[in-house]
């Protein structure tokens, strides 16, 4: 609310102070993930943070050595209000996709409710567009860089969870 109110004031000095405070929150290492993610998104939407800096912040929040719960909370804060940024920025979507694919089974089960809440709050059309972008960017079985010796029966439960998370229909076998 404060961010929207400051935009109405059209006072460059106050806006600069606010964005400096948001930057401290976004770049700090002791804030809750949802708060850091939200501050990053507000800076991106205001044009006060470049897309590559946002990608670097997301990469840090979702690093494989980091806490998966922090990463999921960061995503929840970042996506609050709109997921269109993932539709339009392939780098951010790729980072998120890589992170979800790299989270261990136990950690994934622990963060799934946070991810579900983050994506569930998005309008169905946005979830559908994100799912379409993920599928379009996914390698195909004819791609020689991916393994084709996976067990479809073992993969089916994970694919069903991801489909539900993104609000789409379950995958076809």
Explain this structure to me?
The structure is a single chain. By secondary structure, the chain is mainly α. Helices cover 71% and strands 0% of the residues. It has ten helices and no strands. It starts with a helix and ends in a 7-residue tail after the last helix. Residues 140-144 have low confidence and may be disordered.
List strands and helices in order, with pairings.
Blueprint: H1 2-9, H2 12-27, H3 33-45, H4 51-61, H5 68-79, H6 84-88, H7 90-102, H8 105-120, H9 124-137, H10 152-166
Helix pairs in contact: 2-3, 3-4, 3-5, 4-7, 5-8, 7-9
Please give the count of helices.
10
Largest sheet: none
Ends distance: 46 Å
For the CA atoms, what is the radius of gyration? Answer: 17 Å
Helix/strand class: mainly alpha
pLDDT averaged residue by residue? 83
What is the H/E order? HHHHHHHHHH
Shape: elongated
What is the helical fraction, as a range of percent?
Answer: over 70%
Residues in β-strands, percent: under 5%
Low-confidence stretches: 140-144
Quaternary state of the chains: single chain
Tell me the total number of β-strands. Answer: 0
């Amino acid at each position: 609310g404060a961010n929207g109110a400051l935009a109405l004031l059209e006072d460059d000095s106050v806006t600069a102070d606010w964005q400096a405070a948001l930057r401290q929150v976004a770049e700090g290492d002791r804030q809750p993930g949802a708060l850091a993610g939200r501050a990053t998104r507000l800076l991106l939407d205001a044009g006060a943070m470049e897309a590559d800096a946002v990608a670097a912040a997301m990469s840090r929040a979702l690093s494989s050595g980091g806490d998966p719960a922090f990463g999921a909370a960061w995503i929840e804060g970042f996506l609050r209000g709109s997921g269109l940024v993932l539709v339009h920025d392939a780098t951010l979507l790729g980072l998120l996709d890589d992170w979800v694919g790299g989270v261990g089974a136990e950690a994934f089960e622990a963060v799934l409710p946070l991810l579900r809440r983050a994506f569930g709050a998005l309008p169905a059309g946005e979830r559908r567009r994100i799912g379409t972008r993920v599928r379009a960017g996914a390698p195909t079985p004819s791609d020689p860089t991916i393994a084709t010796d996976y067990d479809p029966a073992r993969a089916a439960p994970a694919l069903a969870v991801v489909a539900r998370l993104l609000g789409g229909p379950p995958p076809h076998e």
